[in-house]
What does this fold into?
Amino acid sequence: MKRVKMIAPVVITVLVVVYYMVYFGILIYLLDTAWALLLGIIPLALAATMIWVCIQRIKEIRSGEEDDLGKY
It folds into this structure.
């Protein structure tokens, strides 16, 4: 049952990371070198954050803590 609950965070993470890479990849292709470097850092940081959040969510699901708001 826990594996089923892990599917949504992983799918959403993959979709968002692919979106970041495609969207910013197009912008990088169309822009100057200085802007391309700046815009290259942004999607990498966003993708890394999304992956980190997904890993944290998977750890919460594995530990049985399914409701994040239950702490408050």
